[in-house]
Amino acid sequence: MTKFRPCIDLHSGQVKQIVGGTLSDTNSGLKTNHVSKLPASHFGNLYMEHGLDGAHVIMLGPGNEAAAREALKAWPDRLQLGGGITVENARHWIEQGAEKVIVTSSLFPEARFSLDRLKAVLSTLDDDVEKLVIDLSCRRTGGKWMVAMNKWQTITDMEVNQESIRLLEPYCSEFLIHAADNEGLQSGIDQELVIKLGQWCTKPVTYAGGARHLQDLDLVKDLSAGKVDLTIGSALDVFGGSSVTFDECVRWNQQQSDR
Question: Would the pTM of this model clear 0.70, i.e. be above it?
């Protein structure tokens, strides 16, 4: 059943909410919606206190390792960690307290998908698919959703569709999918993508990008027949937003559990 999944987005060592499409290596055009005065550990504790399983911590570029460790230490073995995950460090982050690692860019050398790379990452995790999440964050290109890597700036050769989902499902426990063109804009979710994800995925999948109201949780639930979870970021009061409160999302989850 659909549920609210929170996030901790880290940029330059701080918890931030960023307009996803403006991320780059230079940060020259970066647009930031919110910079929290609170450390990553605060949000780890907050999610623990409310039992919000499946939260993801994303390191957006370098300089976020210490903040990521703070978050993981706050709620050991219950938070997912992504951003710069490779075959060299995947196991390290599990040992540092991540429940699961989230992998994207390292699966696409020269922007081309490599099944061998995916198998290599999984091998470092003792082939335990429960420890691996595949991030298929994407951008619309020519009427298709194409996986985007390197802070969502590089379009890869993989289309997000039923074929690619079926190819990848045996190697992971779930998917995380940011609609990068919607991320941070609070302009509404990509409804068509949510519908398709509900049809294509047989494993848990979390959608992020564009959520702006509490009602978006009901919308995602209806569109996906309860198969897709939703992350709300910039619209949330704990991240400087004004259209939905964290407490409302917690109550929404509880109401679903009670049904």
Answer: yes
